[in-house]
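Predict structure. Chain length: 447.
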Amino acid sequence: MQKSGASFLERTRHQLNQAVLWFKPGIGIKRWLVLVLLGITLIGVGLAIFLLDIYRTDTSNTAILTFLSYASLRFLPRLARVIIFGAIGVGLIGYGLWGLNRTLLRPFMRPGHTVIDQLSDYRRRERGPRVVAVGGGHGLSTLLRGLKEHTRNITAVVTVADDGGSSGRLRESLGILPPGDIRNCLAALSNDEDLLTQLFQYRFSGAPDLDGHSFGNLFITALTDLTGSFEQAVAESGRALSVSGRVLPSTLHNVRLVADIRLPHVVNEVRVQGESKIPEMAGRVRRVWLEPNNPPAFPPVLQAILNAELIVVGPGSLYTSILPNLLVPDLLAAIHASRAVKVYVCNIATQSGETDLFSCYDHVRALEEHIGEDMFDVALCNDNYEAPLGRTSKWVRADERSLSDERVYCADLIDEEHPWRHDPVKLAQVLMDLFYERTGPLSERFG
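Prediction complete.
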């Protein structure tokens, strides 16, 4: 009996706490509730005037007068009647709005989440900073997976220089822009990474014509044919996945990445064409560029960059995921012109064939050799080197040369299960702390 009573009290307390949350500042409920109450009050005033007029003028019908007298509880003191009718009215309004909301929102509710929880979370992320994330590959999708918990105002700018795997085959056979990195970003930004997102990432195997292709790549390709444009296909894919934010290609032109590479024990440099071929060369990349070398940026990308409050470049493959975006001249000029906080996220581990033995300093220097100096306000590096790495990778360390740069900020960013990757939660939290000037170079500069 005591257990049953305690359970009842616990449920009642929980329901009261949930009711109080509806009045939490910032979720946009109180203004509409006040408007509803005002409308109901005016209706009540009108009805009261009508009944009062009957009560005063129609004195011949004693039955009606007697009914109105009892219905209005005239045998009680006036203050008691006000409290009783007010409490009943508030209770009915609250219960009615609660039932209406549950009925209307049931098709959109996620299992295990209450209406107020989802509404509060939505409003919090809606007020988040305007973020532009630039890059490609798995690094960018990891970043987006963490950022979407802090803001809905995300624009992912993705390279279209990919020419390997499923994307490369579709690009070569159908002449469309490579959808692979864009597909990964759409999946990362999806509000519901369950069955539909798993389907989007599903990769066929066994069938000769489909082997290696992902469903998402084929889906975007089909939508490109149906809508007549690649950018519209990406937008429609985002709607299908309920994406928080936008995913945009850096350019709509069919560009190819070219690199000059110094090979060991060879005097002359080797020129390599194709993003997928660059890491295969056992040498050191000296410079990369796009062909054609002056592709126009996708206009919505420029608008997003100029409106951004935070621009994050990386993480990702330095030469094949990050630089292909920054080598679009209009895009680079927009980043330089933007007044946003600009952060470069350095990789955690070196990448074989691209950044062998690179430190954080080497990453920043390689970027600035291609795009100019002093573009970033912060260079974010990992400082946790405890977990074991694979044989082909080494830690990207913040050495003395890195730490001599006042822009460098170090934090524990590794994923404990996959230490060569960033943890999306850790990375996003550090970026938000930097943006709000809670820590690091920005707090010292503007604090």
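Summary: Strands lie at 131-135, 154-158, 246-249, 256-262, 270-273, 284-291, 310-313, 341-345, 378-382, 408-411.
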